[in-house]
Amino acid sequence: MKDMNAEPMLEVRDVVHKYGPVTALSHVSLSAAKGEFLTILGSSGSGKTTMLRVISGLETPTSVSCLRIGGESVVGVPAARRRCTTVFQNYALFPHMTVVENVAYGLKIRKVPTGDALKEAQRALAMVQLEAKADRNIRQLSGGERQRVALARAVVTKPAVLLLDEPLGALDERLRQDMQLELMDLQRKLDMTFVYITHSQEEALTMSDRVVLMRHGRIEQSGEPLDLFDHPVSRFAADFMGYENILDGRLVRRDGAVGEIDLGGGAVVRGKLISTDLAVGSPVSIALRAERLSPVGPGGNGIDGTMKSKVYRGKYTDIVMETVAGALRMRSWHGAPMENETASRVGWKETDAVIFAKGSV
Ligand SMILES: Nc1ncnc2c1ncn2[C@@H]1O[C@H](COP(=O)(O)OP(=O)(O)OP(=O)(O)O)[C@@H](O)[C@H]1O
């Protein structure tokens, strides 16, 4: 377990960045401990790349109250003198150099003698299982191998923080999954702080110690992957985390961490309250994962419905139920879809449903 109380390797406080009239970052703060894998997650245009560019020094922020890398303030420090390196999606390798020359390049421009630089580069290549291809031309490598060269080239200079801008985005699904595991392994071996950008919630949940979910230049939610997965704080976060069903209603009762909400049309259901300060009577939403829903008997926590469609998908069956609160998507993994095709009741465990303030979409 990482010591999150140690002095952070990266500290950004209250950064604002505007491109003319567009506010790309609006008072964002974040930090990462030594050896932490921090992921910045968000859809296109949410400000992820801008955040990385501000950290690396490629962009001068409109304002920032603190920006520290490796314990030192880097406000006003040029990109080349910051103790961080960026790995890009398009690798940005030099096509006219061999693999090992590419990796040694960063050391050479730091005036490391050629012999030492090549030795260090070989060691970095061994870490990404490419030592046998050190003398190849970049054009003779596959996409995954190129990305490994880019990684070796970035870590060889031992930055305090490694920034990764959607580094696996150009790879196909299978290779991407393999590379996710390799990256995690490398990060642990090096005990290096990684700040990783992605728009894939699956990637963020798989790889990270902590996830920062961004929306319109602000942080919507941050926490450990499981926290975001099980406790989204808003409709946006729930939607991003893959909750298939989000229904609106009004909080009518609260009993400790359990809330009861009226969805209209006589449907009153229960779930866990994300926030302790939701007042009875306030507009709320309840989020439900399709695979956590199942048929229940009369009176069980849930809602009556009629089956609208049932699609067999091999490992599971997707069912859509029509209810007074709208359509509900269910996923049955057992090949045992609901038997009663005319009328039924869909239910869930209170702890499997999350209730949060209705808020904006
Ligand atoms: N050079 C620029 N000039 C003007 N606006 C920009 C510039 N770069 C980014 N923006 C705007 O700033 C906002 C944030 O962009 P940014 O690239 O940081 O988002 P992102 O989350 O990285 O998106 P993506 O996943 O598509 O890369 C967007 O509205 C974008 O259009």
TrEMBL record:
Domain annotation ABC transporter: ranges: 10-241
SUPFAM superfamilies: MOP-like, P-loop containing nucleoside triphosphate hydrolases
Protein name: Spermidine/putrescine transport system ATP-binding protein
Keyword annotations of the record: ATP-binding, Nucleotide-binding, Transport
Any one biological process term the GO annotation gives: putrescine transport
Keyword Transport: yes
Organism: Roseovarius pacificus
Taxonomic lineage: Bacteria, Pseudomonadati, Pseudomonadota, Alphaproteobacteria, Rhodobacterales
Listed transmembrane segments: none
Keyword check for ATP-binding: yes
Annotated GO CC locations: ATP-binding cassette (ABC) transporter complex
GO MF entries: ATP binding; ATP hydrolysis activity; transmembrane transporter activity
InterPro entries, per database record: AAA+_ATPase (IPR003593), ABC_SmlMolc_Importer (IPR050093), ABC_transporter-like_ATP-bd (IPR003439), ABC_transporter-like_CS (IPR017871), Mo/tungstate-bd_C_term_dom (IPR008995), P-loop_NTPase (IPR027417), Transp-assoc_OB_typ2 (IPR013611)
